Each structure stands twice: as C-alpha cells, then as structure tokens.
Amino acid sequence: MSLKIACAQLNQRVGDMAGNAERIIAAAARAAGEGAQVLLTPELSLCGYLPGDNLFRPAFQQQVDAAVETIRQASAEQPGLHWVVGYPVLREGRRHSAAGVFHQGRQVAEYLKAELPDYGVFDETRYFQPQADATVFTVAGVRCALLTCEDTWLPAAPARARTAGAELVLSLNASPFQSAKGDLRVDTLRSNVCAQGMAVVACNLVGGQDELVFDGQSLALDAQGRLAARAPSFVEDLLLVTVERGADGALALAGSMAPALERLPEIYQALVLGIRDYIGKNGFGGVVLGLSGGIDSALTLALAVDALGAERVRTVMMPSPYTADISLADAKDMAARLGVKHEVLPIAPCFDAFRGTLASTFAGLSEDLTEENIQARIRGTLLMAISNKTGWLVLTTGNKSELAVGYSTLYGDMAGGFAPLKDVLKTVVYQLSNWRNTQSPVIPERIITRPPSAELRPDQTDQDSLPPYDVLDRIIQGYMEEDRPAASLVADGLPVDAVAQVVRLLRLAEYKRQQGPVGPRVTARAFGRDWRYPITSAFREPVSGQGT
Hints:
By secondary structure, the protein is α/β, with parallel strands linked by helices. It has helices at residues 17-33, 58-74, 156-163, 181-192, 263-281, 295-308, 325-338, 348-358, 369-390, 400-405, 426-439, 445-449, 469-481, 486-491, 496-508, 510-513; strands spanning 2-9, 38-40, 82-91, 94-103, 106-112, 136-139, 142-148, 168-173, 199-204, 206-209, 212-215, 219-221, 227-230, 237-245, 251-255, 287-290, 313-317, 341-344, 393-394.
C-alpha cells in the first residue's frame, strides 16, 4: 500500500472565490500529474482567511456555494484524486467552517470544525457554530480523518477522530505567523495528535492578509512525532508526502524537507511578504515613503524594495532647518544603493508659512511640541499629495516601540496606508538592519551607528524623551506582549520610574494607535486585532505599590 498526499500551500485572496477555485484546480492538476491520491488545501481555501463580516453577506455565501460546485465538477477531471477543500457552509441555518472531500464529480465526505478560537486575532465564534463529530474516510487503505486548524491545538477533536478509527489526520490550516511559530506548531501536533497514535499532514495557508501574514511551513509528522516533511516558508508550494504501511501496520511518512529559517531572516521575510501582498492584493502600483536618513525609514525602504522591486518604490527626503547634513547624505546614498527614485522637498517654506499664519494666534507663547508636530504634519501632507497624484501607497516608518508610547505624530509620520514596522521593536529594527546588511550592504553603516533622532529641534535624540531602547523594549515585551503585571517587571529589576512612565504613555497613546494604519503582525501580540483596549478608561495599574 502506498498513499501520496499533495499538500497545496496556496496564497489565496479573501473574497476571490472564482480565483481561489482556479488556483485549487491548477494545484489538483499538478497533484494528479505527480500521482497523488489526495489533494489537501488550507482552511477556508475557497473564500480565503480571515473573511470577517463578509460571511454575513448572503451574496458572499452564494459565491462560495458556486465555487464549491465548480470544485465538485472539476473533481471529475482527476478521477484518481480526492480533493480536500475548505469553505464556509450553512447547514440547517447554522454557519460552519467546513472541509469537504470531492472525488470523481461527487462530494463524498464533509467535516464541520469543532474548536473555534476566540482569542488573540481570532473571533470565530462570531461567525461559526461548532460541530463535535468525526469524519473518517479511506483512501488506498489508509483511514484518514479531517480536522481544521484549532481542532489540532486541543486534544478533544483528535481523540474523537482516533475513536472513529483514524490513523492519519489531514489538517486544513490558516495559522498566522509569529516568530518561532513553526516549532510551536510541531510541539502542539505531537502533543494532541501524535500522542494519540495518529500521523498528521497539516497544510497551511501562505500569504499576507491585512495585518496577518501566513508563513506556510506545511508539514507531516508520523505517529511517533517524527518530522517527516516540511514545505518552505513564505512561498507557495506543493508538498508531496508519501505514506507507506510497514509490516507491523505502522504508517511511515516521507517527503521533502525545507530548511527552517533562523529568527531574523524569518521575521524579515514575513515583513516582505506582508508588504508585497498588501500592495498587490489591493491593486496599488507602488509605494512612496519619507526617507529621513534614520534607521526606521532605511529598514522600511530595504523591505519595500525586496518586496516590490526598485521600480515600484520612490523616496522623498523632506529636510527641515534641524535636519543634519549627514541625514541628507545618508538618505541619498541609500536610495542610490537600491536604485530607487529619490527627491528632496525642503519643508522650510511650508513651515515658515504655518508659523506666519499662526503668529497672532500664538502671540506670547513659546515654541514647544506644537512646532515639532507641524513639521511632521507637513511631511505627511506632502507624502499624501504624492500618493493622491500617483496612486501609490504611503508606507509609514514608525516602529512598535514608538507606537507603544505615542512617540509619533498623529496625521504626521503616522499618515499613510501601511506600517511595515508596526510590530517591530526598535531593538529588533537594529537587528534586522544588521542582518540585511550581511546579505548585501544596502543600509549605510552610519545610519545604523548614529543615535536615533526625530530631528524636529536642535540636538534632539530619542533618549531625551524615552528610556533607553533596550529597557523600553523589555517593558513593552513584558507588559504588552506577555500581559505581565507592571509590578512583576519591577520585581525583575526593571527601573520602577521607567515602568511607570511606559505604562502611563502606553495607555495615553491608545487614541493614536486606533487611528494609525495596519501593519504586519510578527510577534505573539501586536497593536491590532489582538490588542483591544478602550480609549476612555479610568483604570490605573499599580506599579510596585504605586498608581500609574
């Protein structure tokens, strides 16, 4: 007995039911050509993931149903292949996340997802109803069970499959990326599926969808938990897994083994894919960004060019009276290294005009943060004007550390359509920049080594207003990403004044973050779908016994 499974790691588009069906049909043709008996696709592969409130629209479901019928008919063209496809379905007035098996022009089985995640970026109970049943079918003498993503993250659904006689789990997944998620998936499958005596082939989605990035890394494990096959990260792939039954009756799995990426290149590639798919799937011709001569805009530029190519990226340096000559030189140098269109638009005339207009209103008042923010908003206005004229999207360049504490200007440097570094701490910005330069030195070394500054007043540096970034980022990681109490961070040795300052600023900056653009999620918790704090709140968390 030999069973070959083709795991179609697809980059689907939410709402493009016809296009998604075409990609599945193309994958099926390839799978059949490779002699596969099973084609396994990702979760909700027909409508894309996350479909969100589209699911409430009757026309959306009608288009899904039409695509299901297209798949059913197409399955007749590959008579030796069982197609496993994910889609939303209405059964007796209840909406489910379904996985259907199509063979020789008929639907021969259907599984309805049992475990609905309602944490982090997920809110599936808003859209679906659970169904705690098992679906087992036999192909080439192997008893296969269908499970969908979250079903394998808990033991109950695999247990039902095992009780129903399954020896191999086929899992449809839309598991979003976060750093080191691949190892977590393997450990979870070992604990919940393999520990119950079953092998598993898990097909994961790949691609960017708004703030989520899906990394692929589809995989196969035997019943002993040994990794037997793995698809590459961040690209479409057809992973072929061969299943053989040994003399002892146990299933042996084998397939190609793509190398796992190290931490920094993995994060970098996630950001690149997030940019590429957000721009491509939303139909933008290219991107424009402000290139300041600082490290955040430098890394953003490198990511954009790696994602889109130099011909689809343009940069603008907008110097003020406080911009250092080396900033101008470094921005020009980097743009030249990457071959992007670069122009210089001094903002001094606009700044003088603003101050002149406001002179009588501000009479008797000294200059302060107001004048700094005017400069940032002038830059935002210029970038948005270029965006309007060209149809290219503005990339903002702020990082997670700045967004956490509000070290950004609303309608200024936050003005734009996508924020590539939104979930990247400042310390990681430096790490990624150094790593990128090991591939080719596109970022001038002086940009990396000089102290960071917004250059909105004379001799300004970020550390004038904030704790050192290594301290700031440890606080953000502990308090925001890991949800630890502020007092526990102090107990770990972080300065109480710094913890109190960061917790206070993080709370005050909520109104800014909720008006900012989306950006790719690469950590366990980002400022997006999985951060849902109110703007108006009287709650104050104690820091080492004191209010904040």
